[in-house]
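1st attempt posting a full record on here, be nice pls
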Amino acid sequence: MDKDDLLNPFLIKGYSPVYFCDREDETHRMINAIKSQRNLVLMSLRRMGKSGLIQHVLQQKELKQYADCFYLDIFSSSCLNDFIKILSKEIIGKLDHFPANILKKASRFFFNIRPVFTLDPINGAPQLQITLADENRPAESLSEIFSYLRQCNKPVVIAIDEFQQIAHYPEKNVEALLRTHIQQLNNVSFIFSGSKKHLLQEMFTSYSRPFYQSSEIMILDPIDREQYIEFAIKNLKRGKKTISKEDTAFIYDSCLGHTWYVQYIFNKIYTLPAGNIDNGIIRKQLETILLENEPIYFNYRNLLPGTQWELLIAIAKEKKIKEPRSKAFTQQYKLAPSSARTALSSLIEKEMVYQSGDGFYYVYDRFLSMWLDYKYRK
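the predicted structure (as tokens):
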């Protein structure tokens, strides 16, 4: 039995090609950009599935035969040296599969970057660690790793997830430094991705920023509704469960198609003993999920100023709202217009509210939005 057959098919972390839903158009577009040597910026809300899509693209046979592919998540990095270590560890040793080759090339390319091998105490396999001889020379270290990439004969694809993190590094001119190196690499294509849309947009669309118009921009929208309904029904059937199209659509629509939240509900449903999943079971499961998160949501209430909390409730009740600063909206929910404007800006900055491409405002956390509507329903 394949190990994927043992998984809950509704994954809420990690990636499995067996349980990957749709994204055919997005996959084709990304591969086309890479093979045409266009760098790509992939933007989406958190938990929309961008990391899974990147993993899916990098594992496509068409791309793997064309290039060496690397994925790194730099969310945990806090400075340029962290970035260099993550990048170096991912690349060094995968372009050269044997430690002897790495050490031979290290003597030619690396002076400040030091690949160090240790043995796994359990299985004896070699493990690669990266140290920097002088952490006060990050620019030199960066030059070394890009020089190493430049000599590769086969094309290289590097996907950097949560790329907006570099904007928070304490070092000056990180964007300019990276852009200078990247534009000189004819054999390397980059995928820059992130979930803080406003930061990425500023980095890649502002005339004053180094990465201005350097990459093709791609916005990741929800998975196609009909494709997901078909996917969910088919995979529930694997667990000997049945569900109607209408009830599947109810779950998708309740979450506004936001991938992780839809997947989480189906992940929980998949483990239920019931064979026929009807609307009553779905609503009960939703209530259970909301009550599980209730302590967190009450904590939000304690942390947020009153006007922000009231505005959050009002947006949740509307599910989505085009003009949360309008007179009609503020009067309906008894909000002072000037206070509502300030509260909206603060909630967007805290990433509790977001504005979608169609101009509507939503509560970011779909379960929080449902809970607010449920808890404060008149």
